[in-house]
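ENTRY TYPE: paired fold submission
RECORD: A
CONTENT: sequence, then structure tokens
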Amino acid sequence: MSSASKISKLSKNVIRTRSSVTAINPQPEAIHLKALDSAKPYSEIPGPKPLPILGNTWRLLPLIGQYDVSDVARLSSLFYKEYGKIVKLSGLIGRPDLLFIYDADEIEKVYRQEGPTPFRPSMPCLVKHGEPWRTFRTKVQKPILQLRTVKKYIEPIEIVTKDFINRMIEMKDEHDEMPKDFDNEIHKWSLECIGRVSLDVRLGCLDPNPTPNSEPQKIIDAAKYALRNIAILELRFPFWRYFPTTIWTKYVKNMDYFIEICMKYIDEAMERLKTKTVVDEKELSLVERILASEPDPKTAYILALDLILVGIDTISMAVCSILYQLATRPEEQEKLYRELKRILPDPDEPLDSKKLDQMVFLKAFVKEVFRVYSTVIGNGRTLQEDMVILGYRVPKGIQVVFPTLVTGSIEEYVSQAEQFIPERWMKRESDRYKIHPFASLPYGHGARMCLGRRFADLEIQVLLAKIFRSYKLEFHTSHLTIKSHLCMHQMEI
């Protein structure tokens, strides 16, 4: 079976009598209808004007197009500068309109009004939403999202991270520099952590003499290709729906391979569970925790595949961005070192949740990197009913995009937005800096918040703590350019 089938108010009235005053509260539904009736039409929302037949799809094509679909962050920033706080990208052949919202108050309103099964914008090349998603989420959210469960994995993640640091020492050249493909080594660390946490297996990503065609490397390459080409498949003309284009063929091939290899490891984890004697709860993988209370193994399969596919590239590129910012900001790196030295007088001292909780500057630095330099543009929703957004009536079915990478840098919502200030996220400094709670949400909000966010945070924190407690990082080559990609979550097999 191919991946194409696998992935598949009335105003307030007051009645006065001689003895009392009684208020008739307006009904929310009536208020909603009145707001819709008085709103400006959807057609008046600003945005690039579609051409007859070609719509706006031509603007995203290579050579003749004016927008680079591989850099969605730059695209969303251009829209905001040219059109303002609400921008409609209509006339996309084969898909609904995209509505970009750059108002943190309106973003909050959309999030607050969504029901128990909010819809993310669907992607025909990888779809999962609605009630099936709600059922899946209910089954897996306890082992994934409970903080006390996540903390049980500090030790195994630290072990993997120590092995990675030893690998870094081996990779250094005579100038103490890392290899040019160091980002790929970060991907290996990320995959090794995910394998250990989700499947209780060491995949061998950190072996001293890996081969270019090793299974872990192929998993990484397949996940990279799939994630980094979704925008091209979804936003450019969907030729792939009518005949097998080159990019679609490669996409399916990579997804097929990714699923095949990952399923092999997942099946092995299932078999081990049948004869495994658990002495310590920390020995349970996430898949095992789910299977202990969920008889349908498909739930565990979906979770493991989702964590691996989304986690490899998203976490790895976030780490690359954070390491680069620390390497080019020596004062902040020194602050981090002093914090770590205070919490970990002995650099070989094992980490635990209490120590991690004290690393307030580390966490603040990561949040500031996500605000300014996130490798994920933001989040989105498919509207389940007509809504009024910034005075316009937006119909059901429109896909709204919240580019928090842009809203997180708007002065109206974040004071001194152009400056990199990690301290703005620290409680003792929070009174000095204004930041709208919905301006920067790299993991989303509410019921559709990223399932793996706690593990992503934990992996990043452990890696930074272990590296910067003992080592200093420098960057001596040309300035890096960061591109942000569309992000997807929850897959269906």
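RECORD: B
CONTENT: sequence, then structure tokens
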Amino acid sequence: MAALSVPQKLEILADAAKYDASCASSGTKKRDSASGRKGGLGSTEGMGICHAYAPDGRCISLLKILLTNSCIFDCHYCINRRSSDVRRARFTVQEVVDLTLNFYRRNYIEGLFLSSGIIRSSDYTMEQLVQVARTLREEHDFRGYIHLKTIPDADPDLSHQAGLYADRLSINVELPTAQGLQRLAPEKNASRIEGAMAGMRSAMEDMGDARRKYRNAPRFAPAGQSTQMIVGADGADDRAIIRRARSLYDRHALRRVYYSAFSPIPSPSSVLPLKRPPLLREHRLYQSDWMMRFYGFSADDLEAATDPDSGCLPLDIDPKLAWALRHRGMFPVDVNRAPREALLRVPGLGVKAVDRILASRRLRRLRLDDVARLTTSITKLRPFLIASDWRPVHLTDRIDLKRSLGPAPSQLELFA
């Protein structure tokens, strides 16, 4: 490998990291330099190279890089696989530490997202990742956010050390099904990946118990763990993806499952599809994920919203509207009487809007105009709600209801 300057390495390894979607920085403990040792550096707070967004809307800037894009594995879908014809580069531990500190001092970033290809062995690579985090925390008292990608095949003790220094850990399940993983990444094993995730959850729970008993017990990955699935590289439909996501949430208490639409890569493997799935499919999966996590929908509910033939969520309407159209007997619901769980299932009503409705109806009976003031749009709500001055009558049962609530038709451009 020819000698490369640090800026050249950064150009290669920052570009190689763009395929990893799971870099949100929300959920960790708030820290700043004032709460550290004298001369502490960094913060997990403030406004913000990669931008992630916290649930409260804050923009968090992260230095998102790979330690190296060299890899001994040959996963078909990965641009950094062993047989791929890409330019290779590798940072030293000290180079990553210096980059992180220098970028922070220039107010470019508030944290680090670090992943890597597998070099020499899983244990050796994991040791390098842990050494970066350890150096930042112990030698420089870095108080900013650190997210490390852990390696399932690495020694569990190394993963445990990573959790003592990082805010969030993530292990990618890569593909929705074990069959797809065996076909496209034969050197990876689904059971080992899930075993590593289970071990991570156990360590978080044990350290959480220790914190409750002993105030000075160390924190372990306070922002939890996450994972990522590639969508469209194999034949898995949305039903399989939703079922897998629900299973991962239940068994491993994940903070997030990320979905990444497969993107054709240079020098692609012959077993991969020739074109990417619609990006809107990725968006619909994120919407369904949100419905499971915050709206009380089960995996069975979301499967009922998929197309019976393709097994995928409709692209022209959102999953909540698709579910409601197939369960019209549950609507309309009375905005003045319905419980929170029923209101959350109304298309067009978000969590904040439902909370506003519940607070307002304690003071007065709500009219349709009142609901309109508490939400962003009343158009989608009208067929599914009853207010003190509004009853949809036969509107909910209209045959063309989907067409009336879907996106308006638009003229195609001749030279698009």
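NOTES ON RECORD B: Residues 190-213 form the longest helix (24 residues). The radius of gyration is 24 Å.
STATUS: closed
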